[in-house]
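How it folds
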Amino acid sequence: MTPVRGAPGWRDYLLLISLAMMFGFSFTLTRVAVLDIPPLSIAAGRLVLGFVMLYPLMRLFGQRMPAPGRIWIPITAAGFFGNALPFSLISWGQVSVEAGLTSIFMAVMPLVTILMAHVFTHDEKLTRWKLVGVLFGLAGVVVLMGMSALDALGDELFRQGAILISAVSYAINALLTRRLTHLPRWSAMTALMFTSTLMLLPFALLLDTPWVLQPSWQSLSSLVALAIGPTVLATVMILIIITRQGASFLSLINFMVPVFGMLAGVLLLGEQLPANAYLALLIILIGVGVSRLGANSGKTRSPASVAAEPR
């Protein structure tokens, strides 16, 4: 039985806004870290540090890693699409793509999830409002990239494409983690971090030889901040918000993350975003908002699927 919750209070909105800021600022942190640390090492580093911090928390709450068996198949798949792949692609993309633009690209994630849920689930079918929202989202991406983008295929466009693929990857993960809802929350999230680490760490050690790197303190501190904030602390905050107000309330974060991400890039890195970026952001946010019209307020996403939020 779904617990009866009161109306969200100021503490709930403060938690939600703080979490959105954390996710939004993660793109700025990645942009700083990638200046001196290879993208693969950034992704592997935040996963290793994240697992080292999550495992003691899991044990503190009296939970254990899932027992060996078939359950590790969806755990591994979710670890790949929810952490290993998007963390790597976002880091690689942000070698040349600004943090503000990255956050706007990632805003299409909930719209992609709507399309995939219609195809692969039986209880989250496409409605007219969702369809209109998806069309707005696609229009926003076209405005953002510009109609002339295909005329100048190059490194910049491929890196932007990698970030868009990351948004699709998060959407895939949102569906995969539906199969993990029966697991204890801390156990599931620690297991996802563990499998993700196993996937990336060997490649980072082999290709980047991180022990010879000499990153600046800014890049190194950004990497540590990525692990502590958007990777671990955000997980704790997600659990608190879900417990207090449920996953539907948490889904409102989709409106705020791209805004904070864009603002962080402009204010902290001095990025000069083109005028079409602001228009694209407005169109995409309208799409996310329209897609929620007519939604059943009693239907919530699973707690595990919330782990797929872009960060």
